[in-house]
Structure formats: structure tokens, C-alpha cells
Design goal:
265 residues; 4 strands; four-stranded parallel β-sheet; single chain
């Protein structure tokens, strides 16, 4: 029988907000930088990160980029941006589709399901180029939006959406990000949206996984932080435990590159 995990993954959102805001203030002060660039995708992670970022920086020092591929979510993001009083000149909103398609054609990437990953990686890396170019222009830190679940599952594109200068929520599991989002007042239309990296039309995180974040968070927490074995997890009713941990194992290489020659070799 599955143990009650809700209390184990429950956070105190007020204290968590205080911790993160303190961390952000300290980091920006130490780096002597007072501007930030953030990519707003229309999803919960970037919305929460943005809500935290605006706690420490005035609106004129935040640069927002909505770099969509196929479908723009700017209509639902606009109220957030307007409420934060971000100046219009600080808002970059455009499709990366033409750049992605042009590069995909040059590289000979075919329009097949199997090739979607290659094109998706290009999308993530083009967004990275734009964000870091804006950071150079404004002398800003790039604020990442990765959560702990994505990090543990290595669900990111190396040198793409993984690239950032500072990560406000990487210590929080996805289900904990939802708790913080409710406390911060993130609109429901964003919170209820299916998590997606926006890598191609119709792409969703959980569709790629074959399991939900709720399932993954419980298994990852119990296995990695409590030392519960796969067989024990399955006995407790976590039917997806093996699939979740297999996904993690086969993608761990992303954390281990580049491979280098050590002085002892």
C-alpha cells in the first residue's frame, strides 16, 4: 500500500518564498548585477520564477522573452507582464519557428516523429542564444526555470533550456512548485496547463515520460532521499517506479559531460 506522501512533499510556501527571495537578493548583490532576463513559456515554472524575480528587481530591470515555436501563449502572459509593470521595450515576443525550420533544413532533419527530438533540441538552443544575447545587451543574469523533478530526470536540453545563470526553483519538486504557485497567486489558466517544453506542436512532458510528475516526485523522493528500493516501491503500489528510475538512469549522462582527462589519468 502506498504511504501518504502528501505531507512529505508539502512545503511552507511563505517560508519558501522568503528563502528564495533572500537567495536571489544575495546572488544579484554578490554578482553586482541588477538586471535579469527570463524566458516566459506560458507554463507554471517560468510563471513562478517570474513572480519571485519581480520581488527583488524593479520592472524596468527585468527583460521578458516569450520565444514560442508554434503556439503563442502571450495572451495569457500579458496580464502577468502588465501587472508587474514591465516596460513594453523590455518585452520580447516572437516565434522561433522560422529559425528552427531553416536550421533543420540545412542539417537535413526530416519531418518524422523520430526526428522531433533533434528539432526540439534546436528549439531549446535557439532560445538559449536569444536569452544570453539579451543578457549581454543588458548586462543581466539569465534566470532559469528548472525544477528538481526535471533536474533529477535530466529532462532538459544540454546547452539549451538547462543553460542559465541562476535557478530560483531547482530545489523544488514539480508538485512543490504547484504549491508555491498557488501561494503566489499564479493564474489557474497557467497552473492547469499541461506541462510542456514547447519543443514541437502537441509536445507535453508527461506524454514523453509515459508517467506523471506526481508519480515521479513520489518515487524520486522515496528512492533517492529515503533509500527505498525499487522492489519495495512496487510492493507499496508504485507501479511506475521501474520506468521512472530507468528514465533517470538512461539520461544521467547529461550531468556527466563534458568528459575530461584528469591529472591522475
Amino acid at each position: 500500500m502506498q504511504r501518504d506522501m502528501n505531507y512529505l512533499l508539502t512545503i511552507d510556501p511563505a517560508k519558501e518564498k522568503e528563502r528564495i527571495v533572500s537567495f536571489l537578493k544575495k546572488t544579484f548583490a554578490e554578482q553586482r548585477i541588477d538586471h535579469a532576463v527570463i524566458g516566459l513559456s506560458g507554463g507554471i515554472d517560468s510563471a513562478v520564477s517570474f513572480a519571485l524575480l519581480k520581488e527583488i528587481l524593479p520592472p524596468e530591470k527585468i527583460i521578458v522573452a516569450h520565444l514560442y515555436y508554434e503556439k503563442s501563449f502571450f495572451a495569457q502572459l500579458e496580464p502577468l507582464i502588465e501587472e508587474a509593470k514591465i516596460p513594453a521595450k523590455n518585452v520580447k515576443h516572437f516565434s522561433i519557428k522560422h529559425s528552427v525550420e531553416e536550421l533543420a533544413q540545412v542539417l537535413g532533419i526530416k519531418e518524422t516523429q523520430e526526428e522531433n527530438i533533434r528539432k526540439g533540441n534546436i528549439s531549446a538552443r535557439i532560445r538559449m542564444i536569444v536569452l544570453f544575447d539579451l543578457a549581454k545587451k543588458y548586462n543581466a543574469l539569465v534566470c532559469g526555470t528548472e525544477n528538481k523533478s526535471e533536474n533529477l530526470l535530466s529532462y532538459f536540453t544540454r546547452f539549451g533550456d538547462q543553460a542559465s545563470d541562476i535557478e530560483p526553483i531547482e530545489h523544488l519538486y514539480k508538485t512543490q512548485v504547484y504549491q508555491l504557485a498557488t501561494y503566489l497567486g499564479v493564474p489557474e489558466e497557467i497552473s492547469k496547463q499541461s506541462p510542456s517544453a514547447g519543443l514541437w506542436q502537441g509536445q507535453t512532458d508527461e506524454g514523453e515520460f509515459g508517467f506523471t510528475y506526481e508519480e515521479a516526485d513520489k518515487v524520486l523522493y522515496l528512492h533517492l532521499e529515503q533509500g527505498v528500493s525499487v522492489s519495495e516501491l512496487e510492493q507499496q503500489g508504485y507501479a511506475q517506479a521501474k520506468n521512472i528510475l530507468h528514465w533517470r538512469e538512461r539520461n544521467l549522462f547529461k550531468h556527466h559531460t563534458p568528459y575530461i582527462l584528469s591529472t591522475e589519468d
